[in-house]
Amino acid sequence: METENWYLQNKPRIMRQVRFFLRPYRKHLTEAYGKTEGEAIARDGLGRSEALLPGLPDIGGGENPQTKALCSTMPMLAIYQALRERGAPVEEAARLVYLGAASFCDSLPTRWLMRWQGKRLLGRKSLDRWRRAAAISQERRYPEDSVFEVIEGDGHDFEFGVDYTECGIVKYLSREGAPELAPYVCWVDFCWFAAMRLRLDRTETIAQGGQRCDFRLSRREPVEVEPEFLHV
Questions:
Q1: In 3D, which of 176, 166, 109 has the Cα closest to residue 138?
Q2: Which terminus of the chain is more exposed, N or C, with fewer CB under 10 A?
Q3: Whether this model's pTM surpasses 0.85
């Protein structure tokens, strides 16, 4: 018997989140392309998100914390596709994808919600969930999933760490014909954790040519980053 598509089962909720996520993109798109075209690109991105939804890879649904990352990447890919189809260069399309995601992290009520999530993320229940997910990922039940291990914090340099040796986002974007977008999506992580009031330290990512993605999280002052591509 064929397993039901988890994303379609949860489509109303996911699409509400996608609409909420894409709202800040309108500002950057209209600044770059004018009101009429900018809003058309935003609508196109929403429509493409809905079309992409059923094809998101099965990695265990809501039981896997990596599913949330895939659902967040999908609308970024949709906006990127909409821009590229209109002739935008890779760098310009990816820059606008980053700016929209960064604005989302800095918008209200997102900041309040993410601060609440940040308080929970390093809590015992959340960390236990990540440990279970890491163990399952090592079994490679889902070929398109990330594979990672938990690095226990020392209470000084960091409180919690994760080393990814396979990245589900890289796999997904490669499958969808947009592997070049993955390094830009990596930069969004700093915005994401800063909105949670958590510090992310990272020396390399798979998308940027590294052997792993070494996430280290702590409650110290977040790192302020400004990617070079914003000034190109």
A1: 166
A2: N
A3: yes
